[in-house]
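Tokenised fold entry reproduced for absentees:

. . .
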Amino acid sequence: MILMGWGLRFSSVNRSRRGINTMINKPGGGRFAFVDAGEAARILGIDRVTLDQWVRDGRIKPHRGVGRDSFYRTADLEALYKEMHPEAELAEAIAADERESAGEQVAIPVRKKQDPQMRVYLRLQADAKWYDTSEEDIRTWFQQLAPDGYERNKKNAEHTIKKLQYLVSLIEEAQGRG
């Protein structure tokens, strides 16, 4: 008889039939309370550089071992894995929020972007999806928003409004000339 360890094993319900990735039968889905950094990266499906960045960002907490080795709680990895692979509706909501946040400034050097014409065109196509979003949808989203997300989302909305107002002014200026 094979004993299923606790840790990263999920319930006996086979969620993969519904298209949800689970950690059952994944490497590291064993019975240990802690795993090393290499195993943590394999479990999460990321590289070590990303794992180290997530530690610096506070997304996952390392526990120091002997020397310079770090270990990670399997419960923390399970929670982070679920965050990375949410249920379908939640995944779409998160993706929509991430698309909204894409305009946020980052401190890393930016590689060469697409040509401006294509960037603006694609952004307008994405923003056109607001027509499908009701005020009730927005209220429901807001009620589920954690208070620590208020300022970030407010800045994103204000930034987007400024860009769209500028676009409208250019259109009106061109219409006035034509």
